[in-house]
Request: fold
Amino acid sequence: MRLASKSVLIFFIAFDLFTLGLHLVLADHAYLGTFVDIHKEGNFPTWYSSLKFTIVSGVAFFCYYLERQSKVVSNSSWGWIVVGCVMLSMSLDETGQLHETLIHWFFSTDSGKNLALYFNAQKGAFSLLWVVVFSPFLIAILGGLIYFYNNRLKGKRVLLLGAFGAIFLLTAAAVMEYYEAKLLISENVFDDSFLGVYKTFSAIEEMLENFASSMLVWIHYSYVMWFANRSN
Amino acid sequence: MSDYSAKNYETARFGKAIIFLTILCAMFAGYWVWNIVAGRVIDRPNLLLITLDTCRKDHLSVYGYDRDTSPGLVALARDGFAFENVFTVATNSLPSHATIMTGLYPFQHGTITNGAKLDIAVPTLAEFLVKRGYNTAGFVGYYALGEESGLNQGFEDFQFHKVKSHNHDEKELKDDVKGFVAALNWIRDWNESNKAIKDKTTQKRSNFFVWLHVQNIHESYDPPSPYDSLFMKISKPGRLSGFPDGFRAYCSNDLADAWRNGVLPEKYQKEATALYDGEIRLADDYLSKIFSYLKESGLYEKTLIVTTADHGEVLFEKVAKGFSKNGPGHTGRYNDVSLRVPLIIKPVKSSEFNVGKKPSQLISTLDIAPTLIDTLGFRVPSWVSGKSFKNMMANESSQEINSEIYFQETPFKNTTYTGVRNASFKLAVKKTLNESRYILVDVKNDPKELELLVLEKVSKAKKLQEKLDEFQSRFDDFNLSEIGKMSEKMQKALKDGGYLRDETSL
Reply:
């Protein structure tokens, strides 16, 4: 069982690196570039990331089902539903670019204009400033995840550390997105060196998100396996 | 307590700490975001930029001139800084103003002389600020700086108020001060409407950037009454020995013709200078009205006020023969009476600065745009060539801003003037199709520029020549002869202003 859990992690991390490799090798390709470029939306890396969040979400719902069935662990099982919904919304957001749509609408309002003024933001930076607008919610979600995983994974030191690691990676990705926005806001945005830094930031941010979702798949899967073994 | 209960206890304690921290951080972030989206945290200064066309620094009492030409600027300098060593990049109004507005050299912004048009792709200070929520308004007094020049880029409201100086007609004071009045009314209206907005909601939407270009001081020197006789009684038009027609001291063409032909008596030179000083005093009095309103309305401390000039003026100084023309006019191209300009900056919350100082660092008008952007609290864009000296004002630093500064313009077809100066020397070159002529001046020991040095004999100037060559190589690939087709209106305006005199002019 343990080997199987590790294999899941190794498989997904290896696949993450494979998508990075595809990006590095083929991103500038005339026909395939759009399909593998991790800076772009609606392509293979996006669907892959979305698939992982869907798996994480599905397994979370399954955890809820398992716990409710076994009645061994009954307190705060509903947390899995919340986690499942959060992960499902992340999956939908990956493919549907929901936060981009929302934030563009927000920037057409007076409040959005004030935000743009505060950050000296031009249009290009809008979609990245969602981190600022949603920061209270993001903090609440990240805090909630830490609380829940700490509660659920106590005694499972490796999984707990893995969960905290995944949350840390997601937080780092959000922070990097904020700094990408700051880079785009910079008047030096047309300098080649700045564009290079921006693209590096963007690639790192996407990979952090990828590693985090892979770790969450592993953690949720491992929890299911542990729970099934325990019930047996 | 068993191990299991102890672990449970630790987990619960950690969980509570997480909840507490999460709520605290989320509330803090929420408060921050709420303040931003409600527009409560944007509190930038307003900007009032005044450019006194053709104003010599040494004719302002704020810099020690013996006539009381600028009491308003004296008061302004008491609340700010009057910079001693500021030099323009070009001695024609459009290239110089374009540099002030962009922080770029003429070969970079492309408006190499009057009559050209600033390319729409060149970013300006007004565009920078309007994109950041500033209400922008420009008031110019000369057609060559009007909409056709492209300097209107970024101004929501851009007005041209012609000064009657070039008409030589009988005129009233009100005819010559329309620009000042329009700028004052605009600021007043802005303040009233902004107050109304603030009363209705908690949002503070914007600040203002007003550019007031003062054309009055520019030749011809013919201020309306009472400024025409403020410093000296002026002779009535009449006969002048050696001058073919009736001579008028207030007419720039008459003055230039008489002076260049050596028939202008000292009396008329003094009268013309007194008229020039009268124009400065007129401008100062009307600027004082604007400053007074800013004080009355409480905007003074919230407004960054900058007064400078696009270039100076040659009055009756002799210039290097064959290099440039004698005045009156800004015909010198290389000499300090043409290149040196005043610069007075009154910061916001001046009480927080050690004001009233006269910094002596070498500054170019190229540095004005980045300094303003920096002082308003924005990051200086990388496309700007000038350097911000904001920190020099804030920290009273005596640190050097520029080790040398450059000037460059192409006032006539196939004739380019470039130059470089440091604290000791100034080297200028006039390049035509056939030759390159150099002029070297020891500005440290010969501030009146009475002696021209031979470049080859001054070893210390060798490095300066290398710098100048390097600077010139930067625009080798630029075509500095074509400025595009001018409208008839522009051609007439340039002729009236004395810029288009013959077929060799641009």
